[in-house]
Amino acid sequence: MNQYEYRHFLIRYEDRDDEFAREVIKTAEATYDILSGDFNIEPDTELFTLVICSDIEAFIRDTGKTAGSYQPWMVGNANYEKRILCILSPSASDRSDDEMLSVVKHEVVHIVFGKVSDKSPDDISPLISEGGAVCLAGQVDPELLDKNTRPDASNLNDEDYFYGNDGYNYSGAYMGFLMRKYGNEAYKNVYAEIEPLEKYLYDGFENDAIDSFRAFRGDIALERI
Fold it and tell me: Helical H runs in the chain?
């Protein structure tokens, strides 16, 4: 396995992923720098390990999952406490290289914001944690946002409801709108539980968020990568 150190990440990958690994480390380093600056988060001084897993078996092993807990849609995983970020190689999934680079951005968001809260991202509301990552990684699909069937933002705090109601897409739109309307500091304070999310919600928030994403059709911070 190849292994190289950069400013924020130590990347590990097999030879067959050499070309993809160059794009991964470039994306990860740029994402980390942009997020740290835009959200005024002091960068870590200790490196994070970034592993490109060559197959599903390696992904399960390196993420610490089990064969029973793994789901086919799982292609990226970040653990701030263990300082590791795992990405499944495109050769082992049905995702394109570009789609997987968006996954890299998504997981780096979790890594950067791991310093904002004492809680693991798994213990933070999926609306807030996953919503911010989806938005900042540019993974919101405006075409799939429907004001007639959209979930209430507060309901997406419940994990079961989140996964059963297109929570990734809608939470990304909602948190992106929060950032656009109130600023990055507002999202950071909500993430850190310095301020309650309810401070920023109002009647019609969700519909305004959907209209905003349809108008802008883009992410917030990472479009510069």
Answer: 18-38, 56-63, 97-113, 126-136, 159-164, 167-182, 184-191, 205-216
